[in-house]
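Summary of Year 1 activities. Much of the first year was spent building the evaluation harness for sequence design. The harness presents a backbone, in tokenized form, and records the residue chosen at every position. We chose the following record to illustrate the format because it has been used consistently in internal testing since the harness was completed.
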């Protein structure tokens, strides 16, 4: 399991990039976007094709937002995630969270080799959002808060 230090390090960053938000407003990416924004995080969306999602402007790449973010959340297919962790490292983003199912052995290995703070397990099932409180996202995409174990 990822260390609490890595979790705290990522969550202490109040501006995060988010890659993998659907344009139709559905899915985990949109749930994460809404919940984190509601908790006071500034979320910068990255989408290679969309100009805006839900009225929020989108950057085309991680390098376009790298100087303004403390980390990135990836809610993408594993093949895309592998390329995105490399893009993040090249852009100087050192904190990466991969949604369960977004990770790939290649992406995890790259993060480990580069010494990147990376989490691959907790994001959509249990995202810590405060002292002893986590956001849990159900299979239907509905968020709920619960105490951390």
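For this record, the design step produced the sequence shown next.
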């Amino acid at each position: 399991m990822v260390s609490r230090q890595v979790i705290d390090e990522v969550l202490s960053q109040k501006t995060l990039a988010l890659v993998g938000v659907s344009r139709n407003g559905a899915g985990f990416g949109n749930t994460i976007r809404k919940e984190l924004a509601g908790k006071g995080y500034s979320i910068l969306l990255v989408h290679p094709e969309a100009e805006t999602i839900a009225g929020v402007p989108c950057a085309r790449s991680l390098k376009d937002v790298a100087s303004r973010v403390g980390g990135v959340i990836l809610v993408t297919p594993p093949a895309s995630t592998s390329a995105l962790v490399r893009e993040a490292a090249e852009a100087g983003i050192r904190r990466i969270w991969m949604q369960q199912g977004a990770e790939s052995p290649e992406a995890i290995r790259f993060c480990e080799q580069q010494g990147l703070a990376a989490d691959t397990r907790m994001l959509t099932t249990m995202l810590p959002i405060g002292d002893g409180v986590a956001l849990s996202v159900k299979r239907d995409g509905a968020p709920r808060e619960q105490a951390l174990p």
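The beta strands are 15-19, 42-46, 52-53, 56-59, 71-74, 95-98, 117-119, 127-130, 133-137, 143-147. Quantitative recovery figures across the full test set are reported in Table 2.
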